[in-house]
Every structure is written in structure tokens, then in C-alpha cells.
Design brief:
The structure is a single chain. The chain contains ten helices and no strands. The protein is mostly helical and 225 residues long. Helix 1 packs antiparallel against helix 4.
Length: 225
């Protein structure tokens, strides 16, 4: 179990790197959590610092989860890891899921900034890229369409999170496509979607009350709260 503990811990630490907080402090001298919505994720960087920094932070946050699922998981992978795998996934894929989940948790509850981080959407996207690229592409398209149509990145993030398991269900149960390890993927993606929706609970309240901040792209600076 030592190897499992190591990959979980390292993935959590990598996920905990507070990209937006470090960027805002290094370049502008303030903590991004004191501006805009008060969140340390890419959406608030778009809102406060502009779309260029927003894209940079989002890509780096995605990269943290990609690193956890591809490098950390492989570096410390042990084929004798002691657990009984009841799924049709091979053991390494299970370890990738565990590492990706740990990176998401680290992104949301970062150990380097008082356990107040981002919402986990970018980290979740990075993890899903290597697991189910077709569903990820669908989710990314939904995110972009919703975000650009309604100008709410939070709404686009929630829609993208829901689109992943929904697209699995539609492909497998309605269209009839054969998806390897469907049951494992559907439960896994549902758990990730629920976690990301939970991390957006404050945004959902603001969306329902009409007080959520819109993001205007490619505007270089937005300071609405």
C-alpha cells in the first residue's frame, strides 16, 4: 500500500499548486481571491486579469492533472498493488483515476493556500483527456458553446461536467455504441461531475438569483464581482 499512498500524496501535492494565486501575486501583487468572485480558479482569472491570463492558468491547471495521471501514476506504478480489481479496466487505469481524483481534490482544497482553491473543472478536464477522449471532446464543445452563448463560464463548466456522463449514456444506451468498460466509466464520470457541481454550489446560487458575473471575451480586463 506504500506505492498507492505515494501516488495519491504526490498527485494531491501537484494538484494543490495554486497557479492563479501565484500568478496574481507575482505579476500584480495581490491574491486573486481578494478580487472578483473570490475564487482561485481560471474563471475568476478571466474575469479579473483578462482572457490571456485566464487561458494560461486554465492550461496549467489542466496540465497538473495530466501530469498526475500520466507521469506520477506511471512512475510509481507497481503491478503487485494489493487490491482486487472487479472492473474490466486494467489496474494502471484505476491508478490513473485515483491520481486524477487526488489532483482534483488538491486543486479544490489546496494545501498551499489555506485549502481554498479553484472549482476543479480544469483539473477534471486534464484527467479525462487521457481516459475518454471522445467524451472529453464533447464536454469541451458543450463548455465552449454554453460559455460563449450565455457569457457564464461557471454555467459552461457545469454543463461540460454533466455532458461527460450524459454523452457516455447516449452513445452506449441509445445509439448502441460499444464502449469498453462502460460501467466503470459511467460511475467514475458521475462521481467527478457531482464533485465539480458541488464545488460550484455558490455559482449555482448566483446563477439562480441573477447575480453571477458574466465574462466578456476577449476583453482584456474584467473586475465585476
Amino acid at each position: 500500500m506504500i506505492n498507492l499512498a505515494i501516488v495519491i500524496l504526490l498527485s494531491y501535492i501537484v494538484g494543490s499548486i495554486p497557479t492563479s494565486i501565484m500568478l496574481s501575486k507575482w505579476i500584480h501583487g495581490f491574491d486573486i481571491r481578494t478580487k472578483g468572485s473570490g475564487n482561485a480558479g481560471g474563471t475568476n482569472v478571466f474575469r479579473v486579469l483578462g482572457w490571456k491570463y485566464g487561458i494560461l492558468v486554465t492550461l496549467v491547471d489542466m496540465g497538473k492533472a495530466v501530469l498526475a495521471t500520466t507521469v506520477i501514476a506511471r512512475l510509481f506504478w507497481d503491478p503487485t498493488l494489493p487490491f482486487y480489481n472487479k472492473t474490466p479496466f486494467d489496474d494502471f487505469t484505476i491508478i490513473q483515476m485515483i491520481c486524477g481524483g487526488a489532483a482534483i481534490v488538491g486543486h479544490i482544497w489546496t494545501m498551499f493556500a489555506g485549502f481554498r482553491g479553484g472549482k476543479g473543472i480544469a483539473a477534471g478536464a486534464g484527467m479525462l483527456i487521457g481516459i475518454a477522449p471522445t467524451e472529453f471532446a464533447i464536454s469541451a464543445a458543450v463548455f465552449l458553446i454554453v460559455s460563449f452563448m450565455w457569457k457564464y463560464v461557471s454555467l459552461g463548466s457545469i454543463a461540460g461536467a454533466v455532458a461527460f456522463p450524459l454523452s457516455l449514456f447516449v452513445r452506449h444506451d441509445i445509439i448502441g455504441d460499444e464502449i469498453h468498460s462502460y460501467k466503470t466509466l459511467i460511475y467514475f464520470s458521475l462521481s467527478v461531475a457531482l464533485l465539480l457541481i458541488y464545488s460550484h454550489r455558490a455559482n449555482i446560487k448566483r446563477l439562480l438569483s441573477g447575480t453571477e458575473s458574466r465574462v466578456s471575451l476577449p476583453q482584456t480586463e474584467e473586475t465585476n464581482s
